[in-house]
Amino acid sequence: MRGMSGSSESLERRGRSPDAGQEASEDTGLPRQAWTLLFELMHAHMRNFPALAAEFELSPVQAHVVRQLGEGPLAMSTLANYLSCDASNVTGLVDRMEARGLVERRSSEQDRRVKMLVLTEAGVALRERLLERLAEPPELIAALSDEDLRALRDIMRRALRSQ
Amino acid sequence: MRGMSGSSESLERRGRSPDAGQEASEDTGLPRQAWTLLFELMHAHMRNFPALAAEFELSPVQAHVVRQLGEGPLAMSTLANYLSCDASNVTGLVDRMEARGLVERRSSEQDRRVKMLVLTEAGVALRERLLERLAEPPELIAALSDEDLRALRDIMRRALRSQ
DNA sequence: TATTGTTATACTCTATAACTATA
DNA sequence: TATAGTTATAGAGTATAACAATA
């Protein structure tokens, strides 16, 4: 479909040799080396995201909204914030998802300017299938050894802890 | 801006406890545990990609094209392939980038149906700045210990090797 | 006055279908 | 006939600006 594309090319300016990122003292370059490779893998995968969303007849953004909307009512302004987009876009986005019966607008009783979004029953069901699909590891990951997987999992936990 | 949003929410259906992904036998769930956490970090970061592209007055897709176009002439159809989009879109995309002086169309001499894309001098200069910017590790990664960074780098190398 | 959501407008990205020029 | 790129058209996502309702 569209979106970020994958690449087998390194981000390093020096070129694409298998050990690009080995230059300079290892310690000064270490975060950059690790990040560059991680970024490459990320883009290789994100390239498939629009197609994955399309499996559920969702646009990439809609898939993301369904994913975000799991934790109960969310103000439209909060959603705009999560999506890093202008509030005006959320109106049309929610219009389309509401027309498909995935979400509902409910006026807040505390502040009548605010409209809270909730998934419909159909939305919740779709979300469960989507999350299940998203959690399927791609080949690139599934092919790693158990030792690497354990290490990767633990490193990711430590990285996300600081969030 | 827009795009994938970050989330502090786990993909696991069971919930968002710090050790979601710990359930079941560790070995059967290991790829999924590692992937779920990696996916979370990916999305947290991809959320910033449109803003990063905008630093260079590029749309996300244009930024991606600049990145891809580093290895010399590329047929428009090949670019469409890389972008996982229809060839008709590449016409407009390249029109806009050509108008900005970033790329040039050159008719192939082997097959006069084909047009090869090359970065202009300005395009090359922009690409170098962009790659430099993309290679900057985000805080989440930069904060990891050297030991974790080394392990992460090596695991990513092994994962990408199988590509 | 400030904030929430909407509307209006414009641009980019995307898909499909029909077209052209080559092969 | 088949392929590479274009054009036409339509829909989705995005930004900015102006607006109504509410705080």
TrEMBL record, chains A, B:
SUPFAM superfamilies: Winged helix' DNA-binding domain. Gene3D superfamilies: Winged helix-like DNA-binding domain superfamily/Winged helix DNA-binding domain. InterPro entries: HTH_MarR-typ, MarR/SlyA-like, Tscrpt_reg_MarR-type_CS, WH-like_DNA-bd_sf, WH_DNA-bd_sf. Transmembrane segments: none annotated. Residues 34-161 form the HTH marR-type domain. Residues 1-28 are annotated as: Disordered. Pfam families: MarR. The keyword tRNA processing does not apply. Keywords: DNA-binding, Transcription, Transcription regulation. The keyword Transcription regulation applies. PROSITE patterns: HTH_MARR_1, HTH_MARR_2. This is Transcriptional regulator, MarR family.
